[in-house]
Each structure stands twice: as C-alpha cells, then as structure tokens.
Amino acid sequence: MLPYKTKICEPLPLTSREEREMEMAKAGYNVYSLPAETVTIDLLSDSGTSAMSQEQWSRMILADESITYSRSYFHFVEKVKEVFGYEYVLPVHQGRSGEHILFKVVVNEGDHLPSNGHYATTQENIHFHGGVAVSLLTQRAFDPHSQDSFKGEMDLDSLKSLLEKERVPLSLLTITNNDGAGQPVSLKHIREVSKLLRGKRIPLFFDACRFAENSFLIQKKEKGYEKKTIPEIVKETFSWGDGCFMSMKKDGLSNVGGFLALKDGDLYEKLRSFLLLIEGFHTEGGMAGRDLEAMVLGLEEVLEETYLTARVEQVHRLGERLLRSGVPVYQPFGGHAVYLLAGEFVPHISPEEFPSEMLASEIYVEGGIRTLPDGIKGWNKRNGPDSGSQPFFEMIRLAIPRRVYSESHMDYVAEVIGRVYKRKESIRGLCLTYDPPFLKHYIARFERI
Ligand code: F0G
Predict the structure, then answer these.
(1) Is 170 near ligand 1, meaning CB less than 6 Å away?
(2) What is the pLDDT of residues 22-54, one digit of tens each?
(3) Residue 186 — very low, low, confident or very high, per pLDDT cuts 50/70/90?
(4) Residue with the nearest Cα to atom 6 of ligand 1?
C-alpha cells in the first residue's frame, strides 16, 4: 500500500494518436525533445521528478536565504554528515556539477577511473578532463534472465589487473548501477572493492544517487542484513569509502540539488576553491536556502521503510505485469526502473538502426508514455575513446518517479507496452540525421527508415 495520499492533483495531458505521431516527428524521433505537455505518463527519468511531501514544502518557507553560512546550510551539512558519516560536505546544484568539480581536481591526462558503471555525465566528465572511464561490470550482468541478486557489481579480477597496469587516482561504485539495468551492489562486494583499493592507497568514491534503494535491496537480499535497519546499512556502506557525490534529484526526494562529501580535508579545500568559481558560494552550491531545506527532509523521508517498501514494490509489480504479457524485461528488477530488452522485443532491427530509440518512440505514439532508450551498442560505436569496451544490451528504461504515479497508471503503462509488443513485427528502425559531439542521446535527431 502507498503510505501517503493525494492532496494536490495535477491533470495528466491527454492527446490523440494523430497528435502524438506529429509531435514525435517534430521531435526528430528523440523522446528527450518532446514537449512534456504532450506526454501522459512520463517515465523518462526518476531524476528531479519526485513529489515532495507537505513537510518538505512547509520547511521551505522556514528556510534562511542569507548569502553565506545560512541556517539552512548548517541543517544540510549536519544531515549529510549524520546519514553518510563523512566530515566534509559541499552542496552542488546537481550531480554532474559534483562530478565536474571532483574530476577537475583529481584527474590527470591518461588516468583511468574504473567503475561498475559510469552514468553518461560521469563518463563524459572523466573524458573531458583527459581521463579514461573504464566500466568493469561483472559478466553476471550479461545474462538478463538470471535471478542473481547483485548483478550491478564490478569484476574484481578486471579491477586487479587494471590497478597493476594503469594510473588510477580514484575508483567509483555507482549504487544502484543505473547503467547496469538498475542492479544493486552488495555490502560483501563493497567491502572487497574497498580492501583491494586500500591496499594500493586508492580512494573509493560512491556515486550515491540511489543509495537508499541500494540499501533496501541489501536488506531484502543479502544474507546477514535482514535484521539491520536501513540507516545502519547506509552507514556501513559509506564507511568503506572515502567520499561520494550525489544527485539529490533521485534519493534526495528533491527537484534539484546534490553534494560532494568526503573524509579528506586537503581534497575538500581544493574542491571548494573550484566550486566557488563555477557553482556559487560553497555554503549554497548554486541553490536557494529552501532547496537545502527540502533536501534535509528528503534524506529523512527516503530512509523510511514504509516508503522504500512501497517504492520498490511498485517497480517490481510493473515488471511482473510486463512479464505476464510476455514482454522481455531485464531480471531481477532493481530499485528505480524496469528495463525492457529492446533487442529481444524487436530482434529484426539491427543495433545500427537504433532499436531502443525506435521502440521508445512507438511506445509514446501508442499511449503517450515517455520512456528512456538506453541503446548502448548503437551509441558506443560513435561515442569515442573507451565507451565501446563493454557491449551491453539494447534497453528501454521505464524509470518511475518517486511518490508520483498510482497503480492504475502502472496498469495503463503495462497495457500500452503489451499492445506495442503484439504489433512488434511491423516496427522498423531509425537513421541518424543529427549527430552531436557529445552526450549525443540527449539532442540527436532521427528519421524513420
Ligand atoms: N549519476 C547517476 C547514476 C545518475 O543516474 C545521474 C543522473 C547522475 C549521476 C547525474 O546527476 O542529473 O543530477 O546531474 N541521472 C538521471 C537519469 C538524469 O535519468 O538517470 P544529475
């Protein structure tokens, strides 16, 4: 049961099929370019799309908007320290600016930064500063139908051999692994990675966007953690690292925001200087005091077990419904999204013809549902230095915004995708008509073949 009820409602945009056909063509068959007012159910992202609570909204009125060292800044720093256990905290306006600041300071030309999976902005920020982002996702992830619980992890042997060969200033773990079908990472693995890196004096940083969902999945799936509370699991997770960056637009239950948090005071000073140049004062990170207050409560509410249970169950129920209609989906389901296997859905469309992008546009035309094409292979060929190193699946991510949609919305989503699945043979691919220099998938344009 959802542990909240609706107080303010927002009408859903309803459109005709003809309107959607026209909008999709105008958007160059890139769902990112659709005007949101033409989207009925928006599963493009779980980022910045949460519904905030009445407590968050009311706390925003009480915020302190002083330019430096506001009361809200102190609330924010105290809460981040309490939850994650790191001494030094820098607010930033969203995740990628934290990445940019961190990599600007720690990455030198030719450095290698391993991870279980870099998000697109993480990868591009590493490349931008002359580094090489190396994804070392475990081979277990490449079986999309196995029920293995922690398929979001790194391959430890590959990590060991990379550490022998290359200069590594920092290693990353993304929890949960958004680019690895939203799969979680176990505490056993976090400990092993941490010990390996400590032996070589290499810091471990977490990309912590979905840390609460990862902790919930540890509690539900990892032996020995069934009786631990979520805050205890969070504490233990971060105790094995040296710092983290986080987009608070996900598990911060906020519409904007992020932070960098770490143990090393010298590194903090360097990050702070660069932050002043591009974000704002280091006590606000480009945000208003009210944004900081919303995040403080977001960090409290996201750790509530009733919330996390409803959240993850909603994702899993959607996955089960799709499975019942025969739709190919990545298993097991993670914490924030269900991933359709586009390669199995439309096997007759080759990766060069953008099956994920095409399928996402068909799902929109069928029922006004916006999803995220995660067409790794098609893009990897074009993306530059390292991104082709790991083949992965053509996928469509159905990311579920937090506290926004009901079960009846999810029934509708499953029904629409089931209809597209029934007429899958008639779907053809796309060709690229605008190929931007980087972060291509956000703004590329296509035409139907
Ligand atoms: N890391 C991960 C794992 C992410 O999923 C994202 C954003 C970022 C970093 C960057 O954070 O957007 O606040 O700058 N992911 C969104 C998504 C956009 O749809 O998955 P940001």
Answers:
(1) no
(2) 999 999 999 999 999 999 999 999 999 999 999
(3) very high
(4) 119
Residue 225 inside a domain? The answer is yes
- CA separation (Å) from 49 to 85, 252, 376? 27, 11, 24
Q: What is the mean pLDDT of residues 381-401?
A: 65
Quick check: CB of 47 below 6 Å from ligand 1? Answer: yes
Per DSSP, what are the bridge partners of residue 372?
397
353: its two tokens: 């013809």
Chain segment 298-344, per-residue pLDDT in tens = 999 999 999 999 999 999 999 999 999 999 999 999 999 999 999 99
255 and 327 within one domain: no
Residues 329 and 277 in one domain: no
Total domains in the fold of the chain:
2
Shortest-distance atom of ligand 1 to CA 117: 3
Model confidence at 1, pLDDT cuts 50, 70, 90, reads confident
pLDDT at position 437:
79
Residues 291 and 395 in one domain: no
Give the mean pLDDT of 95-107: 98
Tell me the best of 113, 115, 118, 119 to mutate to test the pocket of ligand 1, counting ligand atoms within 8 Å of each CB and taking the most.
Answer: 119
- Rounded Cα distance between 26 and 20, Å, is 10
pTM: 0.95
Quote the mean pLDDT of the chain.
Answer: 94
The Cα-based distances of 291 to 72, 86, 145 in angstroms read: 9, 21, 41
Q: Could you identify the atom of ligand 1 that is nearest to the CA of residue 46?
A: 19
314 lines ligand 1 (CB under 6 A): no
Q: Where does residue 52 fall: left (phi above 0), alpha (psi -120 to 50 degrees), or beta otherwise? A: beta
Cβ distance 208 to 175 under 8 Å?
A: yes
- Best of 43, 46, 47 for a ligand 1 pocket test (most atoms within 8 Å of beta carbon): 47
Does residue 30 have its Cβ closer than 6 Å to ligand 1?
no
Q: Clarify whether residues 287 and 371 are in a common domain.
A: no
Asked if residue 347 and residue 247 are part of one domain, the reply reads: no
> Closest Cα to atom 19, ligand 1: which residue?
45
**Is the C-beta atom of 205 inside 6 A of ligand 1?**
no
